[in-house]
Structures are given as C-alpha cells and as structure tokens.
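Saturday, quiet lab. Running sequence design on the structure tokens for the scaffold JK sent over.
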C-alpha cells in the first residue's frame, strides 16, 4: 500500500531476487489532507487484500503472491510526512470473523 495526498494504492511488491516486478492491484482516489486524522483498515486473507479509509473509500485486490508468510507489512508514504497512532494487529485463522467481503468487489 502506498498513501499520498491524492489517495492510496494497493500493490503486490516485486521481488528482485526472483526477477518479479511490482503489480498494481487497486488505486483509490480521495484527498488525504495534511493535519487531518483518518481511520484506515487493512485486511489480508489468503490472496486477497482490502483497504478502506473512514469506511467510505475502499480498495480491493487479489494476487496469488499475497498468500505467503510475511516478514513485514509496509505502508510507504509519499510526500512530506505522516503520523500514525493507535495501530493494532490482529491475526485470525477463522474466516467467519473477517470483514473481507471479496465477492462484493468483483
């Protein structure tokens, strides 16, 4: 995911060791204003990823390369800076508790 003043993008990162290029999965255009707080939720389930800001701007993507164990999860920001607070991480193997409704975005 990349966040900037015009919105956010969901990408599957490339892997130079495997000569894989990054793949753009979704782009969401919405103003992200400096000095304003937003609520962002990111969910990953299997090969699917969903991100939303303030329950109204939603991006969805799917790629087999997402369905792997992860060493990290990045949220790069382009522009001057970003402030993050109250970040939480939750892991669930029970698909019935996830909010990811992939069929709604196909």
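Result came back. Writing it out in full:
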């Amino acid at each position: 995911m990349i966040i900037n003043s015009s919105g956010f993008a969901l990408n599957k990162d490339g892997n130079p060791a495997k000569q894989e290029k990054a793949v753009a999965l979704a782009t969401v255009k919405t103003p992200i204003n400096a000095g304003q707080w937003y609520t962002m939720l990111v969910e990953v389930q299997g090969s699917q990823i969903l991100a939303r800001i303030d329950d109204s701007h939603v991006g969805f993507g799917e790629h087999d390369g997402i369905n792997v164990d992860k060493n990290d999860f990045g949220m790069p920001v382009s522009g001057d800076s970003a402030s993050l607070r109250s970040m939480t991480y939750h892991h669930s193997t029970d698909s019935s508790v996830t909010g990811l409704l992939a069929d709604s975005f196909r």
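Notes for JK: Residues 100-106 have pLDDT under 50 and may be disordered. The two ends are 20 Å apart (CA to CA). Ask whether to fix the surface positions before the next round.
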